Amino acid sequence: MKDRLEIVASGFGGQGVVRLGQVLGEAAVKEGLRVTMLKSHGTEMRGGYVRSQVVLSPKTIDSPMCENPDFFIALSSAAYNRFKDTVPENGVILFDPAFVEEIDEKLACSQRELPAKQLAMDHFDRPIFSNSIALGAMAKLLEGEMDKEIILESLLEIIPKFHDKNREAFQVGYDYMK
Hints:
38% helix; oxidoreductase activity, acting on the aldehyde or oxo group of donors; alpha/beta; Pyrv_flavodox_OxRed_cen; 2-oxoglutarate_synth_KorC
């Protein structure tokens, strides 16, 4: 693993943005990495702005802020527009087209579509599993950096319900990222 890996997820309340950061952070701790996580959100109970920032490193982390995320998971157009320019050329933006209608083709980074909401509806008839699909996709993108099975184990520990469906949703996201 490189000295510092930054992951930002942002969207709106109720999408599981904070849980996504918690799962990745927990998995990294299990792998012996150092982890910081910051979260921020609007004052609304649901539907307002939410952001989760996770920094992973084998070394001491000097700052918990993600200034140039290696991975940015965009789950709303507002989030995409706010953070797209922070992703460096070798970074990846993972976006859900159900919420990010227009992407900036001029960006130098890689942009990967993940229709997590649609996949959740197609496979489970419920959008609630979008987050587990996104975590599976991230597990694929993080191959070589983090262990897929440890990410899945952390997901199942942090989200205590619907283990079979969350496991299946995780695999759907993993397989989608070919």
